Protein 1
Amino acid sequence: MIDILASPDLVALRAADVITEGLVSLCGGTLGLATGATMLQIYARLVDRFRSGTISFCEVTFFNLDEYIGIPRTATGSFRTFMHRCFFDLVDVDPARAHLPDGMSSDVSSEALRYEALIRASGGIDLQLLGIGSNGHIGFNEPGSDFGSRTREVLLTEATRVANAPYFAKGAEVPHRAVTMGIGTILESRKILLIATGKHKAEAISAALSGPLSTACPASALRRHPNVHIICDAAAASHIVGCVAVQTQ
Ligand code: PGA
């Protein structure tokens, strides 16, 4: 299902609706989280709902998609810092239920296995929130990532490092490596909510929906999942061709 909405504001509102309805119907449940500029407004709308008493997060278990390798958890650019600043510290999240991969582990392969086991032990992810890179990446699964890949160490492309540089302190280097849930891990989520806003995402969205099913566009793997809900703004949808079931508002 695809919703195409007029503005990023409406996209964030719709995404917050889908997440809220999903979590309320599950009386908690397990939510996969993403980072990045697209997510900021969505977390802000979820915080609004918490403050107005519409939703509580204390029974929800969270798994973030990815984390940089080799920077402290509290570094300005870490995804843990992002999540605390934009969401965890502003709502009633139970810290024991808020998981990110440990990018400071001395043994990333073991850490990746631990993270996968933790997701399984929590019963799997009910709803996975996803952004998309302009190069079609999901999580930090860059082009070329196998559709069956699991949580693992990856090398970031230069384009991804440049896109994420604004989150780092002035002069701090964006790490070259990260640990990310794999595409296979993501595809095991019961439902996936993919969000894209802005013209710079138009090509990636079009390739994901109607380009070849290919590791050149990691997001094209989502076509193998039976329950993906895409919410994007008109700019991000502007290159979609031959797409049915588009709802325009
Ligand atoms: P963005 O990142 O929201 O900052 O564009 C999305 C992503 O890279 O997955």
Protein 2
Amino acid sequence: MKKNIAVIRGDGIGPEIVGEAIAVLSAVADKYGHTFTYTEAPMGGNAIDAFGVPLPESSLEACLASDSVLLGAVGGPKWDSQPPANRPERGLLKLRSAMGLYSNVRPARVFRDLADACPLRADIAAKGIDFVVVRELIGGVYFGEHKTETVDGEQKATDIMAYSEHEVRRIARVAFDMALRRRKRVTSIDKANVLDTSRLWRRVVTEVAAEYPDVELRHMYVDNAAMQMVRDPSQFDVVVTENLFGDILSDEASQITGSIGMIPSSSMGEGTRGLYEPIHGSAPDIAGQDKANPIGTILAAAMMLRYSFDMAAEADDIERAVDETLSAGLRCGDIWQEGTILVGCREMGAEIRKRI
Ligand code: NAD
């Protein structure tokens, strides 16, 4: 198969971790006889320096013309004083909206060899933690009207949260489709005892569930879900929720797994093209020192193969190589513990590659 991947290396540790992910992708291409071509698409602070804007038109076009986009991370203190409309993160928001990415998927899985990194009690972690959070990405309160006005001599701020049926239906389908490939359990999270948007959400998700008789659906209030996620995360398979709740719960879910450097994410819209990235930022404190953990980005590349290119065996191969590298005791600084072997970003990438 031939695939064209747009590559956004970004800022800080971005170029280091993306370099390792591309090297792993190239190893997979060699082994399975695929041809991956990489088109550079500058975005973020480096694009502000070179082009004056965080997302040059040429980069946007390269992403829209690609089969999928691989992203490191953008941003850093150098660009913090940019006006809000020209900050590195603006490039990312513009890209997400231009690509019509309405779903964000983050797996939360505790790696067998990193069980000690899980902050939950050992008996809770031992039950197994392996679920995904499917978050609606371009609706709800983040995209509603925001205003601050003076009323009766004091300031009053309002943020509007809105959802239409079609927005709920399409994200629900993403969750149910994903559940079909997993343990066939969807937990839909809302606040239907208080919010109208949640009552609409619950009704539409229940309607969509009727199209998936093999998948079990259960509804849960967001406050309870936040508690259940630390009390017994083994009960979750696919969690689906709206933008604001998903923002918070997906961070909680990531924390459970122990390290921010290990977790990939995918954002998708209609069709098979997606944006794949690690969940962490550009880590300016360790940039350029060969200290970054590339595993989150390498697993993001595996997600790209699985979900956008329908290459399940190739994705399994990468995930197995990561597991075996961890089993061999190799660790980057963020997950290093007494008795394990400390390696840098480049060596971690090479060790994973050699197990493909
Ligand atoms: P961060 O995720 O970059 O870093 C938080 C901490 O985790 C740091 O101590 C960092 O060294 C460590 N860390 C992160 N990734 C790591 C990895 N792969 N290996 C080892 N250690 C790792 O968050 P921050 O410091 O709040 O943000 C830094 C910059 O990144 C900011 O400009 C922020 O806006 C940007 N950011 C970008 C994205 C994105 O591009 N999607 C996401 C979040 C933050």
